[in-house]
Design brief:
Layout lengths: L1 E4 L4 H12 L5 E4 L7 H11 L1 H4 L5 H5 L9 H10 L8 E3 L5 E3 L3 H8 L1
Parallel strand pairs: 1-2
Antiparallel strand pairs: 1-3, 3-4
Length: 113
């Protein structure tokens, strides 16, 4: 399993704490050090939905004043490709190929017990 995020993100910290407490192995990919490209964005968007993947509540969204642009799906995809910090975190890629976006403790408990 791969967990994509940034170490300073509260949701990422909660997810990693959950996995560590349950001894669930994972590989952490820091989006600041290893940005993902459009191909990965497209895969995640297909699995989870572009609106789920696009973080319109974060600092980067506000800094870039993207609310003013009223982005459609194509616009959101373009921004996600060039600015990975707009990705809602964490993004978890399971061995099965499924993708989980964001931290939801109840959902995590359903999946990992």
């Amino acid at each position: 399993m791969r967990v994509y995020g940034i170490k300073t993100c509260g949701s990422v910290r909660k997810a990693l704490k959950f996995f560590n407490e349950k001894d669930i192995p994972y590989e952490f990919i820091d989006l600041k050090k290893e940005p993902v490209g459009c191909e990965k964005i497209d895969k995640w968007a297909k699995e989870a939905g572009i609106d789920t993947l696009f973080n319109n509540r974060g600092t980067k969204y506000r800094q870039l004043k993207l609310k003013d642009l009223n982005l459609d799906e194509k616009g959101k995809r373009e921004w996600l490709c060039k600015e990975n910090l707009l990705i809602k975190r964490p993004v978890i890629e399971l061995e099965s190929g499924d993708v989980i976006v964001g931290f939801d403790e109840e959902r995590y408990k359903e999946i990992w017990g």
